Automatic annotation (TrEMBL):
Its main location: membrane. It is a multi-pass membrane protein. Its EC number is 7.1.3.1. Keywords: Ion transport, Magnesium, Membrane, Translocase, Transmembrane, Transmembrane helix, Transport. One of its GO terms (molecular function) is inorganic diphosphate phosphatase activity. This is H(+)-exporting diphosphatase. It is found in: Endomembrane system. It is an enzyme of class 7 (translocase). One of its GO terms (cellular component) is membrane. The chain crosses the membrane at residues 6-26, 79-101, 107-132, 153-177, 189-209, 264-285, 291-312, 332-351, 371-395, 416-443, 512-530, 551-571, 627-654, 716-735.
Amino acid sequence: MIPATLVITVTAFIGLKWAALQFWLISRIKIEATTDAGDDEAEDPLLSDENNETTARLKEIYTAIYEGAESFLRAEYKVCLLFCSVFTVIIFVLVGWGAGWDMVKGALTAVSFLLGALTSMASGYLGMKVAVYSNVRTTISAAKPGWRDCFNTAFRAGAVMGFSLCGLGILVLYLTMLSYKLYFPQANWLALTECLTGFGLGGSVIAMFGRVGGGIYTKAADVGADLVGKVVHGIPEDDPRNPATIADNVGDNVGDVAGMGSDLFGSFAESTCAALVIGSSIGVASGWDAMVFPVLVSGVGIIVCLFASFIATDIWPVKKEAQVEMALKVQLIATTLLMIPAVYFTARWYLPSEFEIKSTVGSDTLTLHPWQAFLCVTMGAVGGLIIGLVTEYYTSHSYSPVREVANACKTGAATNMIYGIALGYKSAIIPVLVLAMVVYGSFSLCDMYGVSLAAIGFLANLATGLTIDVYGPVCDNAGGIAEMAELDPSVREKTDALDAAGNTTAAIGKGFAIGSAALVSLALFGAFVTRIRHSSNDALFEHGVNMLEPLTFAFGIIGGMIPFAFAAMTMKSVGLAAMEMVQEVQRQFDENPQLLDDNPSERPDYDACIAISTNASLKEMVPPGAMVIFTPLLTGIFFGVNAISGLLVGALIASIQLAISMSNSGGAWDNAKKYIEKQPTDSELGGKGSDIHKAAVVGDTVGDPFKDTSGPALNIVMKLMAVLSLVFADTFYAIHGGGGVFNLK
């Protein structure tokens, strides 16, 4: 049997190599015209020597988007690095003190925190660079006949992000584990995994700032551009006359790409850390290869996603518009189905025929088998697929729910809002039931270790999930570039068709992210309980968490409030920034009325709008992030482990419902608007520019922060609170035996 270390490192390197290959294929598409008569690019009418002005305009737009995204991420990451520097010291001191002044443990946890944060930043930055690099090349490919080239360009851009993030994440995490293994003996591998939890915390902290900061940036620009441009002045989306259009396109890259990358990296790191902490006893009894089974599943997932990607690009390539959405959906279905046998054989080969694990509740020792672990991972993978497909049903204009929202626009924006909010609430029913069944089934099979494996299963095809997630913003930007460069309308029509499929699959990706976040946070909570039991020698939580304890129940109510407070803060932040953006755009139109001419002689001041989004997002991302980070920390220190248990349970339950409903309402409003735009002007829905369309634009504008700021960031709320509690578990227990400073009963 091949050693687990070899399998994990080789699959990680394969993922990185595959990402490099996809980037090379994208780089072959040139922005400038060539003189080689045999070069396909020289024959492209878009890039011929007769269209040098168009080529120069494409480069100008590409450069503006790149510089805007680069400057924002640099500014955001400076804030993140400053915070991480301070928080590293806090981790070192509090974890070391909580472990009985074991400063080595404090130092190793702090180091893993920094590594997780830096890897998350690297993932987000890389995703942004690749997306911006690929946007204009997707536009160029869309100017050519056929659908294969433009689809493959956007798909490969997503693949660079997906495979590089998975490969880099696995590699850094596993090398950290191997380094710590040199210090900790096999009998103390629980301490090794506890130190490793800092890695998940680091990834989640950056994800919080990336999601919130990027979400505020992109939606401030988007809302501002839509309200003044489309609603007031009736100019098309991404029209170069709109001063906010560059900021809007920059936002797609820093929010939808960099933010999503950091978010899903955090999910991967946290789910792996939770599974390792809960399953550390497997390693003590059965060896290293058995303990790192969760990492093996992620490594095998890279290979499965790699082979499945050939289906979209080579085996059944996209030849017409109707095949775009199906090609992306087939990726999710194929990778899920292929993962089932791959996980089965991985469990058979690397887990012992029998292994024991201590029950999370009670004093029993459970005897488990590889087939049980396999079923837990499979339930997670299949559950994720079901949630994704249900999300598609509620957010795609191919189905009745979104068309009902579109028809509601006939009577104005108010009925559109009512229908959209109702759709979001209704769309939470099936995903919540699926999550409940996955939790019950996996816990019944393998206790809390099974829940952590189900979370790993949700993320087993993470490379494909990220590929599809990044595909959407790339196509969206490609359409914006086509509009700003004033290319033939057929190019914009093609990119809009690609983007429409991307919107639906992005909603599917958000469903995956929310479902995985729910399981990850529950697994982290289980790891927290396991760690408190170990620290207290079963004096606490031997019979589970008693929710009827007054302190626990009281903080359960407070925990349920946290997601609503967070959503309120982030929504208001978008509103404040959007108001400033609206005023700036209108100011430019008032001072330069010629900007609204069909062929204006001047360009708007794009930089002013970029500065508004940048400054607003950097300022507004701190309060909600600080609330989520310091609420569990202060609760544990002052009120103890019972209070923190209630806080985590309440936040988890409320976050799931709110995240699903907000994300799906926003996605439905967006696609209802796109559905109306596809209709002819003499149809019942009136098409673009009609009053019905304006009502749909209002819904889409409200839905922007729902689906791209507050909704997705709620994933991180539940994960970050749970992983932070796990990292500081020993600290909380060290204060009055888990009673906190106030030692309330």
